[in-house]
C-alpha cells in the first residue's frame, strides 16, 4: 500500500518534557526581545503582550492543551510575521484536527522562511492530509526547485502526483529520488504501488524483487511485493514472501485478502482465486513455530 506521509513531527515535538519546558520558556523570552536590526530595515512586528506571552508559555508547557489553537491564533494575530509562531499554530491545529487552519498557518510559515526547505515539505504533507493533492504537488515542486537533490522533496512530489492521478509523473519523481537513494524502501514501495495503479503489476513486482531476499527490508515492501504477485496470479511465490513475516495459516489468510485487493486496483491483470483457495484448504495447520 502507498505509504502516506505520517507524517512527521518536528524535532521539537520529540523533546523530553523538561526540555520542552525549557524550550518554551526560551521561546517566550525571545519573543519579548527588542530586535535592534529593525531600525535599519523594515519595521518589526510588536512584541507580544505580557498576558499573551504567559498564556503562550502555559500552552506550550502543557503540550496538547485544548486551548492551544486559540492561544496561538491570538499570538499570530499580534505577530503575523513570526514564522516560528505560524509553525507552532500549524502543529497545534493539526493535533486538534483543524487541517484547514493547519494548512493556512503552514503556508504562511513557508512563505516567511523563503528558501528554507523544511517548511515546504511540511506544507506538502499537510496539504495531502487536507485532501488537496494539487496544492501538495505545488508545495513539493517548490521544495524540489529549492533542493533538486532532496529525496524527501522528490518522494513527496511523487506521492502527491499519485494522489492527483498523475501516475506517470509520479513514477518519474520516484525514479529521480531512487537514482539518489536506491535503497529507500518507502519510495520503492510507493513506486510499486503507482505501477500497480497504472496497470503495470509485472513492473511493480520487478521493482521490489530484491525485497524477497535482501536483509533489513521493511515488511511493508515485502507485502507490496506480495500484492503485485497476487495481481499476477503467482500465489506460490506470494505465499513464500508472506511466510517471511508470518506463519502459513496467517500467510494464506492475508494472501486471500491481497488477491481481492489486487482485483480491485489492478483489474487488467489476471487474478485467480481458486489456487489460493486450494492453498487455504490444504495448509491451515502448518503455521510457523
UniProtKB/TrEMBL annotation:
| Stored Gene3D superfamilies | Tetratricopeptide repeat domain
SMART domains in UniProt: TPR
Family matches, as InterPro entries: TPR-like_helical_dom_sf, TPR_rpt
List the residue ranges forming a coiled coil, or say none: none
State the residue spans of region: Disordered.
Answer: 268-289
What name is this protein filed under? Tetratricopeptide repeat protein
- Species source reads Paeniroseomonas aquatica
Amino acid at each position: 500500500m502507498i505509504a502516506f506521509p505520517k507524517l512527521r513531527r518536528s524535532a521539537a515535538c520529540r523533546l523530553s518534557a523538561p526540555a520542552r519546558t525549557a524550550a518554551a520558556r526560551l521561546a517566550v523570552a525571545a519573543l519579548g526581545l527588542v530586535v535592534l536590526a529593525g531600525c535599519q530595515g523594515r519595521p518589526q512586528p510588536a512584541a507580544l503582550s505580557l498576558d499573551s506571552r504567559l498564556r503562550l508559555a502555559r500552552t506550550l508547557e502543557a503540550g496538547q492543551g485544548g486551548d492551544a489553537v486559540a492561544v496561538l491564533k491570538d499570538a499570530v494575530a499580534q505577530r503575523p510575521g513570526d514564522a516560528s509562531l505560524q509553525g507552532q499554530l500549524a502543529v497545534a491545529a493539526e493535533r486538534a484536527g483543524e487541517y484547514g487552519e493547519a494548512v493556512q498557518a503552514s503556508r504562511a510559515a513557508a512563505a516567511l522562511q523563503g528558501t528554507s526547505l523544511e517548511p515546504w515539505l511540511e506544507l506538502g504533507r499537510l496539504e495531502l492530509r487536507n485532501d488537496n493533492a494539487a496544492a501538495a504537488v505545488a508545495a513539493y515542486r517548490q521544495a524540489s526547485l529549492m533542493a533538486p537533490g532532496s529525496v524527501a522533496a522528490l518522494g513527496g512530489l511523487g506521492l502527491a502526483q499519485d494522489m492527483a492521478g498523475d501516475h506517470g509523473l509520479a513514477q518519474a519523481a520516484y525514479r529521480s529520488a531512487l537514482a539518489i537513494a536506491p535503497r529507500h524502501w518507502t519510495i520503492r514501495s510507493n513506486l510499486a504501488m503507482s505501477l500497480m495503479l497504472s496497470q503495470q503489476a509485472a513492473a511493480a513486482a520487478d521493482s521490489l524483487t530484491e525485497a524477497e531476499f535482501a536483509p533489513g527490508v521493511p515488511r511493508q515492501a515485502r507485502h507490496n511485493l506480495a500484492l503485485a504477485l497476487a495481481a499476477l496470479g503467482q500465489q506460490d511465490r506470494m505465499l513464500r514472501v508472506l511466510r517471511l513475516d508470518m506463519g502459513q495459516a496467517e500467510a494464506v489468510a492475508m494472501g486471500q485478502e491481497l488477491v481481492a485487493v489486487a482485483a480491485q486496483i489492478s483489474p487488467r491483470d489476471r487474478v485467480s482465486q481458486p489456487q489460493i483457495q486450494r492453498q487455504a484448504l490444504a495448509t491451515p495447520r502448518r503455521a510457523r513455530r
